Amino acid sequence: MKFFDEISTQNFKRYQNQQKQRLVFKNGRCNVSNLNIKRMKQHYLMDIFTTLIDLKWRWTLSIFITTFILSWTLFAVVWWIIALSHGDIGYKGNASHPSTFKPCVYNVHSFVTAFLFSIETQHTIGYGYRYISEECPEAMVSLCIQSCFGVIVQALMTGLIFSKISKPKKRSQTIMFSKTAAVNKSENSNHFMFQFRVGDMRATHILSAQIRAILVRKEIFKDTQGMLIREVDIKLTTVTGGDQLFLAWPLILQHQIDESSPMFNMSEQGLYQESFEIIIILEGIVESTGMTMRACTSYLPGEIIWGHQFNQLITHQSDNGFFVDYSLFHNTTENMIPKCSSKHTALESRDDWDSCKDNSSTNDSPLDHNSRCKLEPSFSSLSELKGAQSLIKFDNRSKRASVTNSLSLSNDHSV
Predict the structure, then answer these.
(1) Which of 160, 228, 348, 412 has its CA 20 to 30 A from that of 267?
(2) When comparing pLDDT for 89 and 180, which is higher?
(3) SS (H, E, C) 172-232
(4) Beta-bridge partner residues of 207
């Protein structure tokens, strides 16, 4: 038991390391950071509106509040200077001022009252207690400038908040992808099918929805600590064979693992030893706003279950119509399929054993190939996946031990 626990822990740590090294997280966020970009701040400032939209909400609200307070304060200083230069400060009750004295702005006799008049002017509140007179041309010019400036600032801030709220990125939060993918046997051919499920929670649908998948392999160079990322597009279709998605109900997307597929040589044993990532990208037009949206997710080898198929979700009631049970969205059912690769299955169906031997690796034998192609139960959940490789390694070690013992016994008898 200690041996099993030790190897299972190693495989689980390997799966955790893959989680940290994935390029796209399950929520669609890319795990990529840009470094050493020259004049990056200048480029961001040239596209200031997009930069402000991409900021987090706490920074957007801080900029919103700060912009208005600074504009009110700036023009309050202007109005206070105009009133001070004209002698409006403290003119009431002052005998030095003639009875016919008219201030530039009535009832502005301190900085606080100038600040209140600035707010009323910029937002056209117009309480009627503080108002401008015709005595000061500079006051008239300041009134026109602040009115225009207030309209511009309010339009920019309102547009910023509205654009941030209506970002199509938030629409992707209601797009669901299955937590795991599955490898199943095709009903119409001998090929295996890589499958996953996608659904839309909302009643308003995504128009012209299209989906694509990319298989990404990461090659790390130990001498330079660099990495080469290789991308291969894999073709996706629905179960019915079309490429356009109508997401009124959850759909199962699939990729046929044939000779043109990068997964053609992968068996169940080899799948969990591979290092790749399948990135799913769904694009379409939001029906409510007409904006283009995108939803992404990815699947690691540890998130692909061999020999499973997704459960049916749709039920029908004669009185109430059709219902989709999203509690079964991620559930799968075990399906008995061969554990060998799609390539070996195709060779076996053609009885081409000579070609199978030539194309197989040096460590594989016809006996091992036959054992991998048996119809045996596969792993039913991710909880069983972390011990999968340990069982395989233990089985291989047991076979080698039995072969060694038989050889030693035969040598003893010959002596």
Answers:
(1) 228
(2) 180
(3) HHHEEECCCEEEEECCCCCCEEEEEEEEECCCCCEEEEEEEEEEEEEEEECCCCEEEEEEE
(4) 285
**Residue 207 and residue 62: Cα distance in Å, rounded?**
36
Under 8 Å between Cβ of 334 and 384? no
pLDDT per position as a tens digit, 200-248 = 988 888 888 889 999 998 777 766 667 788 889 998 887 655 567 888 8
| Integer Cα distance of 77 and 252 in angstroms | 65
Residue with tokens 């991710």: 382
List % helix, strand, coil for the chain (3-state, nearest 5).
40, 25, 35
Q: How far, in Å, CA of 138 to CA of 85, rounded?
A: 11
DSSP state of 130: S
Give the helix/strand (H/E) hosting 246.
none
Q: At 390, is the secondary structure helix, strand, or coil?
A: helix
pLDDT in tens, 301-334: 889 999 999 998 888 877 788 888 888 999 999 9
Among residues 263, 291, 254, 213, the alpha carbon closest in space to that of 53 is found at: 291
Q: How many residues does the chain have?
A: 415
Q: Average model confidence (pLDDT) for the chain?
A: 77
Hey, what amino acid is at 366? P
8 A C-beta contact, residue 313 and residue 250: yes
Please say if the pLDDT value at position 74 is more than 90. yes
pLDDT reading at 2 higher than 80 = no
The strand pairing partners of 283, in sequence order, are 210, 294
Q: What is the pLDDT of residue 365?
A: 37
Q: How far is CA 49 from CA 38, 43, 45, 170, 349, in A?
A: 21, 12, 8, 18, 60
* Of the candidates 236, 193, 192, the residue with the CA atom closest to the CA atom of residue 214: 236
